[in-house]
Amino acid sequence: MAKRGKREDVTVIPSIVVDTDVVSFIFKGDTRGVWYEPHLVGKVAIISFMTRAELNQWALLSHWGRARRERLAQYLRRFVVIHSDDHLCLQWAEVKAQARRNGTPIETADAWIAATALLHGIPLVTHNRSDYAGVEGLQIISESG
Fold it and tell me: Where are the beta strands (DSSP E) in 28-123?
């Protein structure tokens, strides 16, 4: 009879998907950022590739200089970026279709962010709860009314 190995304890670190608004609040020192920082403590903070793209666009449209863009890039290293694959693409399509059926269409960028949270079964922290109103099963953490 084969001897079984001793089971080692496994520590699971909770994760959270962070919406673009919350990432930007914290980066720019907006007072609302302090409402959301506690939700990230002790967790793997994840952003969608879409959030990364939106933040890059923000820097370009705002004509940021090289130093500020580099500061943003450095700041974003604290987040794990989830990139698109076939599973995420299907989840995105389901989010878009579901929101439309529920009578509350969702913006394309927000659908990618919601799909990321849903696919991985983790909560989304956002200040814009209403952006995700038509998405069923999405666990939202928000400090907005």
Answer: 44-48, 80-82
Read off the DSSP letter of residue 84.
P
Copy the structure tokens of residue 113: 């962010």
Set out the domains of the chain in order of their start, with CATH numbers: 15-130 (3.40.50.1010)
Q: Show the tokens assigned to 118.
A: 């849903």
pLDDT digits (tens, 9 = 90+) for 18-57: 999 999 999 999 999 999 999 999 999 999 999 999 999 9
Residue corresponding to tokens 């529920």: 102
In the numeric block, the tokens 């949270």 are attached to 117
47-58 core/surface letters (b: 16 or more CB in 10 A; e: else)? bbebbbebbeee
Query: 125 - beta bridge partners?
Result: 18, 141
CB 97 within 8 A of CB 118: no
Average confidence (pLDDT) over 92-120: 97
